[in-house]
Amino acid sequence: MKDYPWVKHYEAGVPHTLQPYPDITVLDVLADALKQRPEHPLAIFQGREVSHREVEEHSNALAAALIANGVRKGDRVTCLFLNCPQSFIAFFAIWKAGAIVVPLNPLYTPFELEHSINDVGAQVAIIGSTYYQAVKSFQPRTKLRLVIASDVDTYAKSPMKREGDSIKLEKGDVWWSDLIDKHKGSPRPAVKVNTSDTAVILFSGGTTGTPKGVMGSHHSIIITAMVHMTWFRSVIAEWEDRVLVPLPLFHSFGVYVHFGSLLMCHAAQVLIQNPRDIKNVVDTIRDYKITGVSATPTTLIAILNYPGLKSDDLRSLRRVGSGAAPLMSETKHQFEKLISGPIVEGYGLTESGIIGATFPVKGKWKQGSVGIPPTDVVVRIVDIATGTKTLKQGEIGEIIIKAPQLMQGYWKRPEETAETLRL
User: Which of 47, 59, 316, 341 has its CA 20 to 30 A from that of 120?
Assistant: First the structure.
């Protein structure tokens, strides 16, 4: 890779390039972790540890169920969950079946959900039971032929009730637990999953405000994970870290970081559903001795302002990521007084696999900046009119990013893809 000026600011040990990237998918990463420590928790939810083995076995069963219900390679399967173990299991199951995950925000309006589901032509939806009636209200206007529902506390330490007692499903729909039980013991399906296959379609408004399906390959998740792991190597303790997950797993950050880099470094991921419940956030960090978390500046400020916060509640945190909005100097400095490491600010977008620029973990921070391009990422500022002329320092223009993990394009939008992806 060419020695761009920003690489001189890389920390010692951070390479200028990681190419060539290995020809593997996240399914291979899960399989490798299973061989090493099958009982190590992949997720922790409401007091219960969900191991790599359980995720593997349940995703194998769900993958077999999907195939038995007609899901084929390349099909799009919609997921509607807030943060819970079902997200991990459903994603892996869909991938094992060779299909494409389409995670949607379950708090979308029924109109928005209907539009997104129709856009990708999804025929199967795996959802939290809370959202069942909303999906059924517009299902006749979609191609959905099967809805798989699960209660949010199915994998909790103390479920409130047996799955299926919450609501009555309509004919043809099935409960998650019934499918897992029916296909229990199934091996991983013999479906070839290539690194170049589309793994996920994430809806993003971009600069137009019109939601577009951003296609990310299996390889893009691996590449982002490796870049992220390499950049944060100095504050990662493999198999030991416990990372809080307040940001939604249906978001690009959740997909690329939590299904990628955190899985690759074998961090136990402690899931919470409501990041606005600051008492729960603080209690969870303290009680689980959380070592890492990524959050918006708004959440960081809310934690600082929490009246019950004690001086040692956050001390276990070795790294905190901040993004989605500018990080103010006062917030950074006040928060870092309470933790054992730095806050690292970053910038990215769904189309770039959430990677664009970030600060060196232990390097100098500059307010108003988003840092420097990490390994294998090139950023330029070009003129808005043509997008081809590189501007001088201080001139205002358009950001363009070159990186190996960029999106494959917008789902069924060739003109907008051609306009956005420039060779």
Answer: 59
| Cβ atoms of residues 363 and 11 within 8 Å | yes
Residues 223 and 311 in one domain: yes
- 57: which DSSP letter? H
Place of tokens 């303290």: 286
- 411 and 374 within one domain: yes
Give the model confidence (pLDDT) of 384-415 as tens digits. 888 889 998 889 999 999 999 999 999 999 99
Shared domain for 251 and 400, answered yes or no, is: yes
Q: For residue 79, list its beta bridge partners.
A: 103, 126
Average pLDDT over residues 252-280: 93
Range of the domain at 279: 5-22+196-416
**Contact partners, residue 81, CB within 8 Å, separation at least 6:** 87, 90, 103, 106, 126, 127, 128, 150, 152, 249, 250
- Alpha helices of 25-145 — where are they, by DSSP H? 26-36, 52-68, 85-96, 110-120, 132-138
Question: What angle do helix axes 52-68 and 85-96 make, rounded to 10 degrees?
Answer: 50
